[in-house]
Amino acid sequence: MTASFFSTSLCALCVLSRLTPILAVESAAASAQTVPSSSINAQPSTALSTAFPTNTLAYALETNYVARTNAIPGYNPATDQPWTGYAWGSTNVGRYRLNTNSVIYGRRGATSISVAQFNATANRLCLVTPRHAVGLAHYGGVTNGHLVWFMGTNGLVHGMVTSNVWTDFGSTSGNGEQLEVVTFTRDVPADVQPARVIGPLTNTWQFIHSFLPSPPAASRQLVVCQHGYVGVCGQPHPGGVICGQGGDSGSTGFIMLGDELLYTGAFSSKPSPFMQQKINDLTLGLGLRTNDYQMQVVMLTNYPKWPH
Fold first, then answer.
1. How many separate domains does the chain show?
2. 187-to-21, 127, 172, 178, 282 alpha-carbon distances in Å
3. What is the pLDDT of residues 142-182, one digit of tens each?
4. What is the pTM of this model?
5. Which CATH number covers residue 274?
């Protein structure tokens, strides 16, 4: 293994030298930026047979998942890991490589999922702006000065240093939901891309379920669990069952729409106006422009609600 494999951000002087320049503070906070989900080519195949009406989100997710997995020779969902060489509880990130046979390989947003972090190796974070990631408050373990690792599209592993960790257990959010927002000392490199999130941002967890049949696993809501496997809740893997063990709290959940992973907040902090508000507050505290750190929201409202 050569030193060039790692991001130079491991060096404290390098971190300080690469801080984003301080810009003028805005007089008013910006709001999350939205695009319609119709802008995503969500259905790679209409020839697949499903029980879902063809105009529904469930149909788009199911046909997408089947088409993607059918394209991988010998695909086995029980052993799908986004990174080869991954081992639960290990921070030996130098041996990790992108797994080209993973269903999420090469998808927009795949690099937003943290590979590991020192002192909190099981809990995952999901990058939602170039400088902010979210996790789950009750899991904890990430504090100021920790390294959080992301693997870029070029296979480089970048160690991002945390400068602020804000948590809330529902007392101030107004909706009773937990929230953890982690700020880094610099923006992530260009080969690490933040995930876009589902919208609208009001009650997103309940909102997405109004578009999908029950149980959620039937509609291909995916999770990257603490053991580094990706699949639906209840999917067996060599270390147990996805979503089925203590420590799976904080796992990154998403839907795969077309070539993109959209963050849903499953088992982690839910996207919301309050989340964006806290990101704005933390950004202003650094003297940076909030316009540069807005979540990108993909609206699902062009799909009909599921007749529950």
1. 1
2. 11, 11, 27, 25, 14
3. 777 888 899 999 999 999 999 988 887 666 655 556 788 99
4. 0.83
5. 2.40.10.10
